[in-house]
Amino acid sequence: MSQYKVMVDDNFHYMEEDERRELGTFATLEEALAACRTLVDRWLADNHKPGMTGAELYSLYASFGEDPFILSGEGGPECSFSAWDYAKERAEALCRGS
Fold first, then answer.
1. Are the beta carbons of 79 and 51 closer than 8 angstroms?
2. Per-residue pLDDT, 79
3. What does residue 68 show for φ and ψ, rounded to 5 degrees?
4. Are the beta carbons of 71 and 8 closer than 8 angstroms?
5. b/e burial code for range 27-53 (CB count within 10 A of at least 16 → b)
6. Any residues with CB less than 8 A from the CB of 21 and at least 6 apart, and which?
7. Residue 38 C-alpha from the chain's centroid
8. Which of 45, 43, 38, 44 is nearest to 24 (CA)?
9. What is the 3-state secondary structure (H, E, C) of the chain?
10. Alpha-carbon distance 69 to 55, whole Å?
């Protein structure tokens, strides 16, 4: 069985690998995806302010948010999850509801 490791980059420290951290290792791709989505959702919720537009929240995320990504274990399918794409979609949805 393949395992999936979720790593997290900090957008504020773009391309600084020494700022990277490990979120965890998951038995399934679905669990790894859920962990990534939860991390982004929490960051967006914590940084959302009433009246903020989706574009404003996404811009804040792109500058300061956490950027999780998935490393597939040997023999596991590759995962093309994009935290930035997910954050953009979720920021719009979150701000529409406020």
1. no
2. 80
3. -75, 150
4. no
5. eebeebbebbbebbeebbeeebeeebe
6. 7, 8
7. 8
8. 38
9. CCCEEEEEEEHHHCCCHHHCEEEEEECCHHHHHHHHHHHHHHHHHHHCCCCCCHHHHHHHHHHHCEEEEEEECCCCCCCCCCHHHHHHHHHHHHHHCC
10. 22
Q: What is the pLDDT of residues 27-36, one digit of tens each?
A: 999 999 999 9
pTM over 0.85: yes
pLDDT per position as a tens digit, 65-88? 999 999 987 766 678 889 999 999
Strand partners, 67: 9
Distances (CA, A) of 58 to 5, 36, 46, 63: 25, 16, 13, 9
Q: Give the contacts of 36 (CB within 8 A, at least 6 positions apart).
A: 6, 23, 68, 69, 70, 81, 83, 86
Q: Rounded to 5 degrees, what are φ and ψ at 63?
A: -90, -35
pLDDT tens for 15-54 read: 667 778 999 999 999 999 999 999 999 999 999 999 999 9
